[in-house]
Design goal:
Length: 222
């Protein structure tokens, strides 16, 4: 049996989410850096494994999986990780799946917003796309996280007592907003969630790698 390989980039929120799960689950894995800025994802040796040409993806003894949420569910089952990470009771599991699906067209707006904001900052051109569309949608998602998904005593998504893969994915996506100094304080439940997630030792480790690179490339202190 070979070690599971994670094809990864520190600037990729879903890549970081998968890495957090591997670390929390103490899975012995091998990391393969994919330089997205240089287009490594399109190189024949990568493309021959993953025609989707995006990270993260994993290779587990010849079996290739892409899409971070599918990867996380696979890792959970494959390595018999703690059920608190992905509860198995039908209703609980369905809640997590519901968030994971919702994430792609809501929380994930953060990625578009950060990219567009950084681009417009770099070019000096205000971006209508940022202002009118993505920003509004992102704020709607953030408000729903604050008012609905995290509005409970535990401040984990849907009020589970321990962090789940939904929390890990959500947290890593929103961490990106720190690059543009997003004001989390306006959203107290979300702010509490971000703080408690950032104190999990394995998440701290992954965040450190991201913040070191953010400082080097964007001169931003996270
Ligand atoms: N829905 C996918 C999103 C994957 C994704 O957007 N990956 C980006 C990095 S965050 C990527 O590889 N971009 C490079 C490209 O599209 O060329 C997931 O959750 O894994």
């Amino acid at each position: 049996m070979n070690k599971l390989k994670l094809f990864y980039n520190s600037f990729s929120q879903p890549s970081r989410a998968v890495k957090c799960l591997l670390k929390i689950g103490k899975v012995d894995y091998e990391e393969k850096f994919v330089n997205l800025a240089k287009g490594d994802q399109f190189k024949p040796e990568v493309k021959s494994l993953n025609w989707n040409c995006q990270v993260p993806f994993i290779e587990d003894n010849g079996f290739v999986v892409f899409e971070s949420h599918t990867i996380m569910r696979y890792i959970h089952q494959r390595f018999n990780l703690d059920n608190s990470l992905y509860p198995q009771k039908l209703e609980d599991k369905t809640k997590i799946d519901m968030y994971l699906d919702w994430h792609h067209s809501n929380t994930r707006r953060s990625a578009n917003y950060v990219t567009a904001s950084l681009l417009s900052k770099r070019t000096g051109q205000p971006s209508l796309y940022v202002e009118d569309l993505v920003h509004k949608e992102l704020l709607k998602a953030v408000q729903n996280l604050n008012d609905n998904l995290l509005n409970n005593p535990s401040h984990y998504i849907f009020g589970f007592q321990k962090p789940t893969i939904a929390d890990i994915s959500c947290y890593q996506e929103l961490t990106e907003l720190k690059l543009i100094n997003f004001d989390f304080k306006k959203y107290p439940n979300l702010d509490a969630f971000m703080n408690q997630m950032s104190n999990i030792p394995e998440i701290k480790e992954v965040d450190k790698d991201f913040s070191d690179i953010a400082l080097k490339i964007f001169k931003v202190n996270l």
